[in-house]
Request: fold
Amino acid sequence: MVAPQCYSNKHILNAQVAIRSPCCRKWFDCAECHVEQEDHPLLQQLDMTFACKKCKKCFRKDVESFEDCDEYCPHCDNHYVLDAITPTPALQVEGEDARIDARMLKDDRVRTAPERRIFDVKDAADRLG
Reply:
């Protein structure tokens, strides 16, 4: 089998494998991508075909006899069964590139109080009487 051309997934940000759908024999990163792109429901089977995004090799897994050791690619040991990270909307202030202009960044460093001495000219009248 030839590994598919894998693009970034907008539903699951940390997808490690692409899944071949048994109904139309196309590659998708998740079931939601199949629903968006195809006009038929996803056919579910117990034998699934995966393509690892790290080594670009394909492999099959039987879902009925899935064990802890089956969470890794058999070719490169990439751990592909992970908790999904989904995109979350965020409201942020847009600014220029912080590497060029860092005026919008807050400086969280703590300023130390200036050291006070007996012979400080500003406090000399209070100290010497």
Observations:
- The chain has a mean pLDDT of 78.
- The longest strand covers residues 47-52.
